Amino acid sequence: MIKILKPTDENITLASGIIKSGGLAAFPTETVYGLGADVFSRRGIAGIFEAKNRPFFDPLICHISSLEEVQRLSSEFPPEAIMLAERFWPGPLTLVLPRHTDVPDIVTSGLPTVAVRMPAHDVALRLIKKCGTPLAAPSANPFGCLSPTTAAHVAEALDGKIEVVIDGGPCPVGVESTIVKADKTGIFLLRPGGISVEEIEAATGLKVLTPNASETPEAPGQLPYHYSPMTPLRLVKKITGDMLSIKDAAFLFFTKPVDITAGITANTGFLSQGGDLREAASAVFSELHRLDSLRPSVIIAEEVPAEGLGLAIMDRLIKASKRTSPQS
User: Fold this and answer.
1) Is the Cβ–Cβ distance between 29 and 147 less than 8 Å?
2) Are 124 and 35 in contact, with CB atoms under 8 Å apart?
């Protein structure tokens, strides 16, 4: 049974000892909870893929606690990437950089690049520093399932797979990091996330570009379906009153409706009271976890505006809707 531990110095030392011996420990970040292993421990990294049942062609994000650690992971730090790091680190932005030869192939799925970020969470930074090494840390959940935003989500999803999770409370951002590749050719969005395209463009004065489609994922979260509840999810532009009569269904509204009162019960969730996209992002996975636990026949989710953080929320909802059953 997984031990849920408070983020004391003693428990962080315990978790770091597990990681340094080639094991796994889950910990909070500002985005979602991560499943951490020593980047340079092939045993530990293999353990991540085994615990998550994750395909080996899906690369991992490496987490650091200082800019100096980038040189252990990357052979080059382009000026464009440095500019973004100085503006957004620590924070929910992942940079895809040229890979250092010391980084094992299993971390990068054999790609010539490596994904790196510095989390903006005190517990995560303390753990990385205590380990004395960058940590590879995908979301602490079975592959393709809902990302965990609380320690309880981790314990439920990975019970029997790992020893400990450090409980740092709910994750304030609630969706995974934005992933970009930045060099002299431009800034390319590989996955929308906790930093909006608008924020990046405002900070750099540069247009964020969309790369050509590739069959091989350059970064996590690029597969057609991902982030899925066990319950099939149906995405609609707006939930209407007649939909609320669908038998055994659950409903996820963007905002709390003022024109629909009948049918608003425990099987109904709201991402935001008044349409705030940051509030919605922080709630999307926790609400999907809650509705999924009710074991409805279907979750009907309402679209959100695809701007700012709404782009990341829609990315997660669209990918969740691509998987129509737990087995697909």
Assistant:
1) no
2) no
**Residues 219-267: pLDDT tens digits?**
666 565 567 899 999 999 999 888 988 989 999 999 987 766 655 677 9
**pTM more than 0.85:** yes
Helices (H), 30-189: 42-52, 70-73, 79-88, 105-108, 122-131, 151-158
- Taking a C-beta distance cutoff of 8 angstroms, is the pair 228, 292 a contact? no
Place of tokens 């500002």: 30
Read off the tokens for 253. Answer: 């509204």
78-136 pLDDT, tens digit per residue, is 999 999 999 999 999 999 999 999 999 999 999 999 999 999 999 999 999 999 999 99
Integer Cα distance of 299 and 233 in angstroms: 5
Q: How far is CA 155 from the centre of its chain?
A: 17
Residue among 304, 153, 291 at smallest CA distance from 232: 291
**What would the pLDDT profile of 177-223 be if each residue is shown by its tens digit?**
999 999 999 999 999 999 999 999 999 999 999 887 665 566 666 56
CA 218 from centre of chain: 15
Paired tokens of 66: 């200082």
102 burial (CB, 10 Å; 0-12 / 13-18 / 19+) is exposed
* CA contacts within 13 A on the Cβ side of 81: 24
Distance between CA 43 and CA 278 in Å, rounded? 37
d(CA 314, CA 292): 18
Q: What are phi and psi of 298, to 5 degrees?
A: -160, 150
Q: How far is CA 291 from CA 169, 171, 301, in A?
A: 20, 18, 11
CB contact at 8 A, 37 and 44: yes
Backbone angles phi, psi at 151, to 5 degrees: -65, -35
CA contacts within 13 A on the Cβ side of 201: 9
Residues comprising the chain, all counted:
328
Q: How far apart are CA 260 and CA 262, in angstroms?
A: 6
